[in-house]
Amino acid sequence: MLLNASGCLDALATPEVARAFDAFVTKTVTPLPREGNDPTRIAETDHGLLNSIGLQNPGRERFLAVVLPQLRGLGLPIWVSVGGFSADEYAETCSRLSDVTIELNLSCPNVDEAPEAASEIVAACRAETPLPLYAKLSPALPDIADVARAAQAAGADGLSLVNTIRGLALDDETLRPRLARGAGGYSGPALKPIALAAVYVCYRATGLPIVGMGGVSTGRDALELIAAGASAVAVGTALFTDPGAPHRVRADLYKAAAALGFEDPLAARGIAHAPASQLALSKRTTNKTPAYTAK
What we know:
Elements (H helix, E strand, L loop, with lengths): L1 E3 L10 H4 L5 E2 L16 E4 L2 E4 L8 H13 L5 E5 L4 H9 L5 E5 L12 H9 L6 E4 L7 H11 L3 E4 L3 E3 L16 E4 L4 H15 L3 E4 L5 H10 L3 E4 L9 H15 L16 H9 L11
Parallel strand pairs: 1-12, 2-5, 5-6, 6-7, 7-8, 8-11, 11-12
Antiparallel strand pairs: 3-4, 4-10, 9-10
Helix pairs in contact: 3-4, 4-5, 5-6, 6-7, 7-8
């Protein structure tokens, strides 16, 4: 499954790009409308992109009444990114949703308020909805696998790994921060090794379905995340410069997988965890190699 990363695509403005994905992930929705942070909110760097949007969104009521019905017109499965600043706020929004997958944004680096513990938020949401719940985690966590296990125990059905990591860029002439708030969320190619590490350890720790994201711009990037344990992949920053990224990444993913003997890219899921003996066997057998299962 190929998705967009939350906040990286305006599906209503570019529906043809959105329909190139298998599902559409919304921007994060909060209970009240948010204007977001002051400009400047985006800055390019040599190896990625800094953003400090600040969860700009129309708020829960307008989203439910206006935006979500319009998004359903895309004819795609919808994933709703839910945010808030208490477990009750997350849970109330979840209770109002139907026929979607929910991605709980537990990881935004561009707001001042610190949300409650991930497990408490997941548990509160689980109590309010039977819908699939994915916990989106920050790569800056001291022990992301421990938080993933806690989210799983609280009722998460899957994980989204990872959000941006905090970074800073300075103006060439003034040596002042290029973003109005100073630091922002860093994404792009340089994030891929961090995302791979997060997917790798969380797959081993939980075995949950994982949406891998962070630095995906080629099919090989997507295949590596699958090998680390992802069962789906999201494209984010690449969309800002290449609207054709979904088609290109999908085609390249199948080519990259086939070159290594996998008819289906998902057959390579978790292969990075396989013992050497199993890996050697897969080289001798066919493209029917089963996905490795975390212990």
